[in-house]
Amino acid sequence: VYEMLDEGHSHPDTLDIVQGLAGSLAAQGRIREARPLYQEVVEKSEPESLAVMKALQGLAQLDSKVGDYPAAIAGLQRVIAYYSRSADLKSLDRWAVALGDLAAVYQ
């Protein structure tokens, strides 16, 4: 299905699907396939949006898996800063997960 989408797809719902696909690929260890999908979400979404933060967190997790710890830390710090500016409970939950990811990088 992904290959059938045109190059200009940037609707938030479509990018959410692309992000889900990236997460599924990452969970299967298919890092080379997941990375460009996360990057696409970052490039085509609003800069300070939830979609970008979720994609940056996914990229940081990939960076950590391949041993690029400075990139993982930088990405997670940006994500944590974003979530800490929000007051809703979902952001608090996402903030806690991002902190856990950051702690895992330091282990």
Please write out the topology.
Blueprint: H1 12-27, H2 31-44, H3 50-65, H4 69-84, H5 89-106
Helix pairs in contact: 1-2, 1-3, 2-3, 3-4, 4-5
Explained architecture:
With 107 residues, the protein is mainly alpha-helical. Helix content is 75%, strand content 0%. The protein has 5 helices and no strands. It has helices at residues 12-27, 31-44, 50-65, 69-84, 89-106. Helix 4 (69-84) runs antiparallel to helix 5 (89-106). 33% of the residues are buried.
What brief labels describe this structure?
single chain, 107 residues, mainly alpha, globular
Mean pLDDT figure: 89
- Pairing-aware structural class of the strands and helices? mainly alpha
Percent of sequence in beta strands: under 5%
Number of helical segments?
A: 5
Shape: globular
Using only CA atoms, what is the Rg? 14 Å
The major beta sheet can be summarized as: none
Q: What is the H/E order?
A: HHHHH
Overall helicity: over 70%
Detail the poorly predicted runs. none
Intertermini distance: 38 Å
The overall strand count is: 0
